[in-house]
Amino acid sequence: MADPKPVILVSACLLGVACNHEGRAASRSVREELESRYRIVPVCPEVLGGLTTPRPAAEIQPDGRVVNVEGTDVTAAYRRGAEAAVRVAGAAGAPRAVLKARSPSCGSAQVYDGTFTGTLEEGEGVTAAALRAAGVEVTSEDDPLP
Q1: Residues 49, 21 contacting (CB under 8 angstroms)
Q2: Residue 135: how many CB atoms within 10 A of its CB?
């Protein structure tokens, strides 16, 4: 018998998977809050895009490119990861996602400004934007959980 709970896409780092750029999980896990109500589908767009764990921190530049702290343009990997996340959401039938706040992939309301100074600005990550364009409702762990 199929699980009757609705499906939700969740950043893997928010589920305790050590896949963020530092090779760790996010400090806040949302697994317990979501697993009783949803069938969780974990996703890490950076890993899906071919980046290693750990990896140098990256930020979205004013021109839209994603560049890491070493100066390497990693935009193609971020786009591949976003496209893969959209495919996963579609295949799983996930109408919503809870993604890691402020990430250059997953940030849903703010991202770092590209200066590597810790300065935030309004905006969204590459994956958050791609999922929204595909019709997926995107929030972060900072928002009230669905």
Answers
A1: no
A2: 10
